[in-house]
Amino acid sequence: EAQVTQNPRYLITVTGKKLTVTCSQNMNHEYMSWYRQDPGLGLRQIYYSMNVEVTDKGDVPEGYKVSRKEKRNFPLILESPSPNQTSLYFCASSSRQGDTYEQYFGPGTRLTVT
Amino acid sequence: TQLLEQSPQFLSIQEGENLTVYCNSSSVFSSLQWYRQEPGEGPVLLVTVVTGGEVKKLKRLTFQFGDARKDSSLHITAAQPGDTGLYLCAGRYGNKLVFGAGTILRVKS
To answer: What number of other Cβ atoms are within 10 A of residue A91's Cβ?
Structure first.
């Protein structure tokens, strides 16, 4: 089954404790990205990756890191989480269809930083 | 930062009514997508429109891309309770995808 998986689905942590949210896709997609979703703000792109070893900042990259060492994995790293990073996070992967990208989202990770 | 404004933010209607959700921007997008999201799940792509003036239909849903590729609309005919959810528009410029804040639709039976 074609899918994007994220782990963990729920995480409660404390300020300053480094954490990693994993993302994996089994569709051989080149394009992957991370979003955060907050009430009234929609989804905002944190980072995206066009291919292995190619990453770039989205609209809200501060406080986050990513890496793309393998095509299927795109982990999101919070080196020193703060309460304003409490949010619902989505990973997505895309296949290019002509001039557009058909994007598939993971189930989300709800992060709470106290 | 490119901005996409969606309206209305909330919509509560009776089963069988028609509705339209709007997505507007001052920026030109190379393509625009509509997603539907249910609680506890990630957004699911409904449609992608690419050409200015393009109209696409998906059963009772009609999507239109503005001639200038700055705006789009989603029209639902004879809404059903199963249409309840969060509807998101997203515009692509370059390698980035910008989302609107979403429209929460509730269809009452």
So the answer is: 28
Check residue A100 and give its pLDDT.
76
Instruction: Say whether B41 and A42 touch across the interface (CB within 8 A).
Output: no
Largest CA distance in chain B: 42
Q: Which of A100, A102, A109 to mutate to test the interface with B (most CBs of B within 10 A)?
A: A100
> For all residues of chain B together, what is the average pLDDT?
93
Predicted local confidence at residue B3, as pLDDT = 82
Choose the weakest-confidence range: A3-12, A33-42, B78-87: A33-42
Pairing of strands B10-14, B103-108: parallel
Select from A105, A52, A36, A50 the least CA-distant residue to B94: A50
Which residue out of B29, B36, B41, B45 would a mutagenesis test of the A interface target, given it has the greatest number of A Cβ atoms within 10 Å?
B45
Mean pLDDT of B53-71: 95
Contact flag B90-A33 (C-beta cutoff 8 Å): no
**How many Å apart are CA A104 and CA A91, to the nearest integer?**
8
